[in-house]
Design brief:
The complex is a heterotrimer. Chain A is mainly alpha-helical. Chain A contains 14 helices and two strands. The two termini of chain B are 44 Å apart. Classes of the chains: A mainly alpha, B mainly alpha, C alpha/beta.
Chain lengths: 310, 281, 435
């Protein structure tokens, strides 16, 4: 039921129109009403308010002052924004592939019919239930330069420790490491579900034809996991672009600007520098970037599906 | 051939052990540190079992902070928010998936697009609103905004797209109203999706930090993440004085234990539930 | 109509006059919200003080909210936007201006006019004056703090050193004797291995305290940072670079301080560094270590590295009355509490803070507390960072502000001090002109 969602959508349309007389014109809106009320009040409204603020100078207290597109023009010459964009792109560029590949590998590994795989699944997912404050503080301690657990073992192995959170060259890797540990279990669970949907007969048939494990992976597992991969990719991309909690707790963007990410910058600008208008403008930029990514991905996905179908 | 398979199995188990160790070691280290006296914590050599086992760190956390109250607040808020989301999202998801009406596509697209708006930007208008209603520092201020969540609606809609029509049609023929069908036919079928939404909502509300920080003022409504934040910073110079690792780790353990215990007890539902969140549209 | 309106208004006025009387007659309890960023042991002592007050004053009950400074101010600003600010808010003098220009704090001159306690002559000048912004008082000082020099008496004795360094030259000279690598060599010895040092002479901050130290040295050279009209950076790049160079050399040339140190208090307690430059808030931990493990420590003044004039980085805590509160009528009660706190700040001094209230500061009980003497001597030489409206944007410790970026690039990445200082100066001007 998960493999073929698209035709179902059209089934909805035909059934509903065929039975349209069974519910009144207003029923759908009544069903939507409670949620839409909450959505408009607590989400869309405040977001549009933010969009409006991006054309003002506003220090949270007092009244906003309309300044047209001045905030957007400021973005073009703001060196901190450049750093934030660069760091966010680097973080996303590294975290997303890492998470997708590792969670896929974990899922395939823990899908092997051996006893004990449930233990592996539980262990891999455990970090995901922790709150960001705990994860941030725990990893600040583990990545501590002199007494931290990680460096203690790196030293023991003769590799030598790294100044994890106190060097501009490696601080972002420290955040990435933390993020991967924290969230890899989520992708793994999604991939595991995807794997259950692949009919076992496909593998058996291919094995009878003499296909090796690599062949199975390339020609059955990966293509049939494409929809799941799309979802995991999309979710990790959205989350990576908006990475904030770990940065806020562990480094606040430092040392220097080495871990300054877009949302951390929005937070700093809006709440610490009290430039709510400019913060809102940067948030609008982030929204734009994500929409573009979402559209590109949706387009590629549709093309990919059509390619498979034809 | 048999020895090859045995070798493969051995490698698999070796990797499994490595995986379990890597994923759980940080949490074990957190536990271990929380039972050590501060003098034993920052030493270069690693020892997992505390040489001097102490409960002082926990004692200090309990003495200094109202951590039980924060936990209770978090429980109430997360439960309330989860119930609210289950109700709103199963109604909305049902309409979006199973009914034809003008603006359906646009409404769904606008809802989804809100995933791309960083929450930092919506916090101030939210606060102004709750303040006008005289609701700051109440459970309601923490619960109501969760009702606007996007993932829940998305999940419910995706699930409803995929359930068969026959049961509904039968109920309709029997003359049941749409609301009745939703309640007694569709919802029972949607248990897996509801579980998923419940777990995701509960977790994210339990862990949420920034909005509760702004919206709460006293221990009457302060939640766990906000409460523990005051003694959890380990960045040098944040709290003036030496970093108290033991105490921070004790706080971390206390904050981490409820979700971990619940997860271990209900792990099957968790993993099934979470895997629902990946259903494709 | 008019008559009725008049009658009504008379009744209202009467009511208004009667209500407070009725309230006090019934013994109604006034509750005050008090927010502070003390999250360490100092916060516990403040909590105890508040509890003591609450026990002694059943009619005025205070709720203390503790949170780290930065999120505390986030919540303060947002709460102010809808008149829900706390009744009393603690902060640091240099942070006042940014809130004053937004009209978030109450001017205090008129309110304290009748007070016998809250008067400038009862306070140290260096503590009182930074709370005056453009001629108006906005906060009552609570305490001062500044960098001092702690040293490990045992390690000094082992190395045969009697006195702590008082100048920059002495710091380097003594520092070399106190720095030892794994083979027992000192920095000037042949075969000294800077990558394998087991004992450093002194700590080196990798956080905002690095630029606090730079600020002290730069002020010792007589440098200014912001132009008088507040519109541009007035940094003397040569002096700025000279001050940074001294700090950078301690790490990278003389090898007497570690690079990228994170837990300097612990390193000092464990003997990994023989000296520590940090604030008076460390003393309770050292006292505890002395009681537990016999750790021997003493304190001295921050060294005078440059001869021009003596200066040491400092700040302090103060108490403000936010203006955007639900009920401004509670201000008198709030001031009563602040008066009481001043007189009872001996307990606060035990948290390592240096009381700003003269009577307590000059009391025998405080002056004879171990280790305080050096800090008391430094009080008049304390230099605050410029309290300007853009303070947070330029100086905040938890964001990539120009000062943080300058400090970390120089001290962690060994950037060229003059170049980094020039970059910071350009950024500061950029920020000031955006205002």
């Amino acid at each position: 039921m998960r493999v073929l969602p698209r035709p179902r959508t059209s089934a909805v349309a035909s059934t509903a129109s065929g039975m349209g007389h069974l519910y009144s014109r207003w029923t759908p809106y009544l069903f939507l009403l409670p949620y839409l009320l909450a959505f408009l009040t607590f989400r869309l409204g405040p977001s549009l308010f933010g969009l409006g603020m991006s054309f003002t100078r506003w220090s949270i207290v007092g009244s906003p002052e309309w300044i047209g597109t001045a905030n957007y023009e400021l973005m073009r010459i703001d060196p901190r924004l450049d750093a934030a964009l660069k760091n966010t792109a680097f973080f996303t560029g590294l975290t997303v592939p890492l998470l997708v590949v590792l969670s896929l590998a974990l899922a395939i590994f823990l899908n092997q019919p051996h006893k004990g795989r449930a233990l592996g699944r539980v262990a891999a997912f455990t970090p995901y239930v922790l709150m960001s404050t705990v994860v941030g503080v725990l990893w600040t301690w583990i990545l501590e330069k002199d007494f931290g657990l990680l460096n203690a073992y790196l030293n023991k192995l003769g590799i030598g420790g790294l100044p994890w959170l106190v060097s501009q060259d490696v601080a972002l890797y420290g955040i990435i490491l933390t993020t991967v540990w924290w969230t890899v279990g989520y992708g793994m669970v999604l991939f595991l579900a995807g794997l259950q949907d692949i009919p076992a007969e496909l593998y058996e048939a291919a094995r009878i034809d003499g296909a090796g494990p690599l062949h199975l992976l390339r020609h059955i597992t990966l293509p049939l996991l494409a929809p799941t991969t799309f979802v995991v990719l999309m979710l990790t991309l959205i989350n990576s672009f908006q990475v904030f909690d770990q940065v806020y707790v562990m480094t606040s963007g430092g040392p220097g600007t080495s871990t300054l990410t877009l949302v951390q910058y929005i937070y700093t600008t809006a709440f610490q520098n009290l430039r709510m208008g400019y913060g809102a403008a940067v948030a609008t930029l982030l929204f734009g970037i994500l929409i573009v990514f979402a559209l590109i991905q949706a387009y590629l996905y549709r093309r990919g599906i059509r390619g498979v179908a034809s | 051939m048999i020895s090859m398979r045995l070798l493969g199995k051995l490698i698999w188990y070796a990797l499994l052990v490595a995986l379990v160790v890597v994923m759980l070691a940080p949490i074990a280290w957190m536990l271990s540190t929380s039972f050590k006296p501060e003098t034993e914590i920052a030493t270069i050599d690693v020892h997992w079992i505390p040489r001097t086992f102490t409960l002082d760190n926990y004692q200090r956390v309990f003495d200094r902070f109202n951590i039980l109250r924060w936990t209770l607040n978090s429980l109430i808020v997360s439960t309330g928010a989860t119930l609210l989301v289950l109700l709103l999202d199963s109604l909305a998801g049902y309409a979006l998936a199973r009914m034809q009406f003008a603006g359906r596509g646009v409404i769904f697209a606008v809802i989804l697009s809100m995933l791309f708006v960083p929450m930092q930007i919506t916090v101030v208008p939210l606060f102004l609103m709750f303040s006008k209603l005289n609701l700051t520092d109440t459970y309601l201020a923490l619960i109501l905004p969760v009702g606007a969540n996007v993932t829940g609606v998305f999940l419910m809609r995706q699930f409803f797209l995929n359930i068969p029509y026959e049961l509904e049609d039968a109920a309709r023929v029997d003359g049941a109203s749409t609301l009745r069908i939703w309640w007694s036919v569709v919802l029972p079928l949607a248990r897996p999706a509801l579980t998923a939404v419940a777990i995701v909502t509960f977790l994210s509300t339990w862990n949420s930090f920034f909005w509760p920080l702004i919206a709460t003022r006293t221990d009457a409504s302060r939640t766990l993440p906000v409460g523990i934040a005051q003694f959890m910073s380990l960045r040098p110079g944040q709290a003036q004085g030496a970093q108290a690792y033991g105490q921070a780790m004790a706080g971390a353990v206390l904050a981490a234990m409820p979700p971990i215990v619940v997860f271990y007890m209900l792990q099957r539902y968790f993993i099934e539930g979470i895997s629902m969140t990946g259903i494709k549209g | 109509m008019k008559k009725m309106a008049r009658k009504l208004s008379v009744m209202l006025v009467l009511l208004a006059l009667l209500l407070p009387a009725a309230a006090s007659a019934q013994g109604d309890v006034v509750t005050l919200e008090f927010w502070g960023g003390w999250t360490g042991p100092d916060g516990d002592i403040m909590d105890q003080l508040v509890q003591q007050w609450n026990a002694e004053h059943p009619n005025i009950q205070i709720t203390l909210t503790r949170q780290q400074w930065s999120p505390l101010f986030d919540a303060f600003v947002v709460a102010s936007a809808s008149n829900e600010a706390p009744d009393i808010l603690a902060m640091h003098p240099q942070e006042l201006a940014q809130f004053i220009v937004l009209d978030l704090l109450t001017p205090l001159d008129d309110l304290i006019a009748g007070s016998e306690i809250l008067k400038p002559e009862n306070y140290l000048e260096s503590a009182w004056n930074p709370n005056v912004y453009e001629g108006t008082l906005y906060a009552i000082p609570l305490d001062l703090h500044m960098h001092g020099l702690y040293y490990n008496l045992d390690l000094f004795e082992q190395a045969g050193i009697e006195n702590p360094p008082a100048t920059g030259a002495e710091l380097i000279e003594i520092g070399k004797q106190l720095t030892v690598d794994a083979n027992g060599n000192h920095p000037d010895d042949e075969g000294f291995d800077p990558n394998n040092v087991v004992q450093y002479a002194i700590n080196m901050h990798s956080n905002h305290h690095a630029f606090f130290q730079w600020w002290a040295l730069y002020r010792q050279l007589g440098g200014e940072l912001i132009s008088e009209d507040g519109t541009e950076c007035a940094m003397d790049i040569d002096k700025a670079a000279q001050a940074w160079q001294f700090l950078q050399d301690l790490v990278y040339t003389h090898h007497i301080a570690p690079q990228g140190q994170t837990d300097y208090a612990r390193d000092f307690l464990s003997g990994r560094t023989a000296m520590l430059i940090d604030g008076p808030w460390q003393m309770p931990a050292f006292e505890a270590a002395e009681a537990e493990t016999g750790f021997h420590w003493a304190s001295a003044k921050y060294p005078q590295v440059f001869e021009e004039n003596y200066a040491v980085w400092g700040s302090g805590h103060n108490l403000t009355l936010p203006s955007k509160v639900a009920d401004p009528e509670k201000r008198d009660e709030a001031l009563q509490f602040i008066e009481w706190l001043a007189a009872n700040s001996t307990a606060w001094a035990r948290a390592g803070q240096l009381p700003a209230y003269r009577e307590v500061m000059e009391s025998e009980e405080f002056r004879t507390m171990y280790g305080r003497e050096a800090f008391i001597e430094m009080m008049p030489y304390e230099v605050f960072l410029p309290g300007i409206p853009a303070y947070n944007e330029i100086f905040a410790s938890n964001a990539p502000t120009p000062m943080m970026v300058m400090a970390q690039s120089i001290m962690l990445e060994q950037a060229d001090p003059a170049t980094a200082a020039q970059t910071a100066c350009d950024e500061i001007t950029f920020i000031l002109q955006m205002q």
